[in-house]
Design a protein that fits this description.
By secondary structure, the protein is mainly beta. It folds into two domains: about 130 residues, Diaminopimelate Epimerase, Chain A, domain 1, CATH 3.10.310; about 140 residues, Diaminopimelate Epimerase, Chain A, domain 1 (Roll). The chain has four helices and 19 strands. The chain has a 19-stranded mixed sheet that branches. A hairpin with a 2-residue loop joins strand 13 and strand 14. The longest helix has 13 residues. The radius of gyration is 18 Å and the shape is globular. The model has no long low-confidence stretch (mean pLDDT about 95).
């Protein structure tokens, strides 16, 4: 099967984006893994698709798959890319679109030719939202936040949690450059507390309006940027009383802007989106691993 695609990136978080609106596309987990593979496929952190929706008030159905073939609930950097994709491909002439996702309806607003603002919805901070099993887990209060003691073979980590439709755990570090992201990330994910795994953020507070962040994502490993991870990190900082309501988040791939007015309010994520190139890939039939 010959599959047209557009390679896109937002703050270095890269995606293969396909049009499943014009023609319906169904791919197996093995085929998705092949497309995402950086040696045998196109290569990307995640694959995205815009498809038709039956949900009233929505323009598209926005689907996300991790590089390991699992489907994800939400991706903020990807949301910015698919909003630009919809306009560039003539699928929509609107500057504001609403997409159905597994995490709920998401509104994306094109601010310029290459900058998009996304309403990420109202975050949740209860363990149930992350499918956590907190049996025997110690907790600490820090201002408005609650920290959870996550035991790993690398030592104990005290972490904030947040759900932006997908689960995040955030730990404070002195320096993101020296943080053991590649070791602690999978160690935290392996803890049975997170029954559906978790995205792990490593947050360094620079000042009250600037932070640095690295994220070890579910199904992808460490990525150059993570939009929902940026939101979760800022939420943790605000709730701990360390950050203002508008914060710039510097990640290895670029800078994103996150704003949050407080409890019961939606989080907003803004940043760039860019089309890198277009192409077609011959996708092997069947669920074949590389």
């Amino acid at each position: 099967m010959l599959l047209p695609f557009v390679k896109m990136q937002g703050a270095g978080n890269d995606f293969v984006v396909i049009d499943a609106w014009t023609d319906s596309v169904e791919l197996s987990a093995g085929q998705i893994r092949r497309i995402c593979d950086r040696r045998f496929g196109v290569g990307c952190d995640q694959m995205l698709a815009l498809a038709r929706t039956q949900r009233p008030g929505c323009d598209f159905r926005y689907r996300i798959w991790n590089a390991d073939g699992t489907e994800a609930q939400m991706c903020g950097n990807g949301a910015r890319c698919v909003a630009l994709f919809a306009q560039n491909k003539g699928l929509s002439s609107k500057t504001s679109i609403v997409c159905e996702t597994l995490a709920g309806d998401v509104r994306m607003e094109l601010l310029s030719a290459d900058r998009v603002r996304v309403n990420m919805g109202i975050p949740r901070f209860d363990p149930e939202a992350l499918a956590m099993d907190c049996t025997g887990v110690s907790r600490l209060s820090r201002a408005a936040d609650t920290l959870y003691q996550i035991r790993t073979d690398r030592g104990d980590c005290w972490m904030s949690i947040a759900s932006l439709g997908n689960p995040h755990a955030v730990m404070l570090v002195g320096d993101t450059d020296s943080a053991e992201v590649g070791l602690l990330g999978p160690a935290v994910q392996a803890n049975p507390v997170f029954t559906e795994s978790v995205n792990v953020g490593f947050l360094q507070v620079v000042d009250r309006t600037h932070v640095r962040l690295r994220v070890y994502e579910r199904g992808a490993g460490e990525t150059l940027a993570c939009g929902t991870g940026a939101c979760a990190a800022v939420l943790a900082g605000i709730r701990r009383g360390m950050l203002e309501s508008e914060v710039e988040v510097a990640m290895p791939g670029g800078v994103l802007s996150v704003s949050w007015a407080g409890e019961g309010e939606p989080v907003y994520l803004a940043g760039g989106a860019q089309e890198v190139f277009e192409g077609c890939i011959n996708v092997p039939q069947g669920e074949r691993d590389v």
